[in-house]
Amino acid sequence: MIKEKMNKLNLKMPHTYALLLIIISLAALMTYLIPAGEYKRQKKEGETQVVSGTYHHIEQHGAHFLDIFRAFPEGLISGGEIVFYIFLVGGAFGIVHKTGAFENGVNKMMQVLGAYKVLMIPITMIIFSILGFSIGLAEETIIFVPIGIIIARSLGYDAMTGTAMIILGAASGFLGGMLNPFTVGVAQTVAELPMFSGWGLRSIIYIFILIAAISTVMLYARSIKHDKTKSIVYELEQKERADVETQSTLNFSKRQLSCLIVIVLTIVFNIFGIFMYGWSFNQMSANFVLAGIIAGIIGGLGLNGTFDAMIEGMRDILFGAMVVGFAKGIVVILEDGKVIDTIVHSMAMLLESVPASIVIILMFGLQFLLNFFIPSGSGQALTTMPIMVPISDLLNINRQLTVLAFQYGDAISNVLFPTSAILMGTLAVAKISYTQWLKFVWKLLIVWVIICCLGMSIALIIGY
């Protein structure tokens, strides 16, 4: 009954692109309702900062009907560097996935750790969290969920345990975000901060986030190990019991190991280039293209097979990449209509007497809610940071704190809102309903919110 109701709810839920079209249309309407205005800006220590007290009204620039639809291609062009980075990373991962390196590598790892039983949970979650904070592992988690479920069941746990090991492991890293190009990288680029700067404090907060996630999964696994009826997906486990088998040894070849090594070295090389030479998304994209081609050749796909796999990988990542460009269209409309500075001015006036500690929490809450409508970290960063950064400048709040508020608000809601294609796709593969997932994850989400709010408060106190 509950599942049928959820299915009906999902059918009525607007498509993400439909939501973006509605928001762009509202943005166009705002160019008539909100007075146009501008701040003067100045360059200071490499940052383009808003000059306080210089806001003034200008001639109205209302958007026309066709401007709503021009916002889509203009948004894609404006966010092109990031859009194509997402495509090319997806293509590189598509190549490695085609070689079987991911599946066989994870299976081999699971078998090696099999004797350690419960230690498989934290080790697996740590590995996926590293992928989460280094390359922003997101859509790719769906690939690994079936493997996680098989391993969890073979150890006496359930599908919820296996799913949580993968999705919450990656989500912990995504939330930590120290080297995540899709969220922190984009937000810091918009905020004109050095990419991945401030990673030290983020790393400390990440450790607490990861510990909370691992503890949640392990406590749940322990409870159902002793009493199967406590499983949130007990009925599913009864139905699937006949299909539970111990994972057989799969052939993890030296070629596949070499493919994984190529990808790992590429990630390390990109991080080195960012910190040493200030590389941007273009350089990182080029390196992933090269890595993908090398992995395809090593993996035995041949040149034609390599590019076929690249196209498949790009196709799988299409949803997320296009959301970035479409979300950027919202800012295109507001910028062309000259109303962004008016919004910034109004919010700054409203918040000028509010303590900075409260402003940061409000920013965090706003980013959290906006992720329901824009379930893309890059898209949300491109949409909201042009507004949040000037507000932080006017209120003398460090831009790193503004990025932190965005990062945490976006990432936590990724494992909560049903508009997240990654979350809903993962649950569909695992045969877990959305309501069952909420029953499992809600306590952890509260803990994560508390950790993040405390982290932002500490950052404010120490002048992060």
UniProtKB/TrEMBL annotation:
One Pfam family per UniProt: DcuC
Entry keywords, A to Z: Cell membrane, Membrane, Transmembrane, Transmembrane helix
Coiled-coil portions: none
Subcellular location: Cell membrane
Membrane-spanning parts: 15-34, 76-96, 116-138, 159-179, 199-221, 257-279, 285-305, 317-334, 354-374, 440-462
Membrane topology label: Multi-pass membrane protein
Protein name: Na+/H+ antiporter NhaC family protein
Organism from which the protein derives: Staphylococcus hsinchuensis
